[in-house]
């Protein structure tokens, strides 16, 4: 063990230490990079931490921005914009339910799977969805801003029950 104390060897060991430290840092950085790119890591950790610190489900920010767009359209008071607001609110509810793993191409199919325990206002939502279908399939149908506000309130209540807000 006495040979480790020679000055020539001590300098060489210092260089070896530096090389191994650099290699360790590079490998640790690579692990962190790969970990951040892995989808399972996002699901397992990132989403949970985000939900915990934001006090709302992961991914709600995007839906909330869409909801703000719905409200802005409704506030214009124009009939065409109110119709679009109702259609977009209906689509938003469908997207939220599909993210909750309810399957279906149309909101009717998704709502058929839902129990009143999950969505207590489901009857009102079905009526609002019928109004939305009437708006889409009958372009000449009149929709007053007050009717649109009432329909949007139903969707807002449903989204609140699903804890989107």
Instruction: Write the element-wise H/E pattern from the N-terminal end onward.
Output: HHHHHHH
Q: Quote the distance from N terminus to C terminus.
A: 68 Å
Question: In terms of per-residue confidence, which ranges show pLDDT below 50 for 5 or more consecutive residues?
Answer: none
The percent range for strand residues is under 5%
Note the main sheet. Answer: none
Which structural class fits the helix and strand makeup?
mainly alpha
Number of domains: 2
Q: Supply the number of helical segments.
A: 7
- Shape descriptor: elongated
Short précis:
With 165 residues, this protein is mainly alpha-helical. It is 75% helix and 0% strand. The radius of gyration is 28 Å and the shape is elongated.
Describe the structure.
This protein has 165 residues and is mainly α. It has helices at 7-37, 39-54, 60-76, 79-99, 107-111, 122-137, 145-161. It folds into 2 domains: 2-54; 60-161, no CATH class. The model has no long low-confidence stretch (mean pLDDT 82).
Task: Chart the SSEs and their pairings.
Elements: H1 7-37, H2 39-54, H3 60-76, H4 79-99, H5 107-111, H6 122-137, H7 145-161
Descriptive labels:
165 residues, 2 domains, elongated
């Amino acid at each position: 063990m006495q040979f480790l104390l020679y000055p020539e060897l001590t300098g060489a060991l210092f260089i070896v230490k530096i090389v191994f430290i650099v290699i360790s840092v590079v490998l640790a950085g690579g692990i962190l990079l790969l970990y951040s790119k892995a989808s399972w890591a996002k699901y397992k950790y990132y989403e949970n931490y985000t939900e915990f610190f934001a006090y709302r489900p992961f991914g709600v920010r995007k839906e909330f921005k869409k909801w703000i767009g719905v409200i802005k359209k409704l506030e214009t008071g124009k009939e065409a914009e109110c119709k679009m607001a109702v259609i977009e609110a209906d689509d938003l509810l469908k997207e939220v339910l599909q993210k909750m793993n309810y399957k279906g191409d149309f909101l009717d199919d998704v709502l058929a799977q839902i129990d009143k325990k999950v969505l207590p206002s489901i009857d009102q939502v079905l009526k609002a969805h019928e109004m939305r279908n009437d708006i889409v399939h009958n372009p000449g149908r009149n929709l007053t801003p007050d009717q649109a506000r009432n329909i949007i309130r139903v969707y807002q209540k449903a989204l609140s029950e699903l804890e989107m807000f």
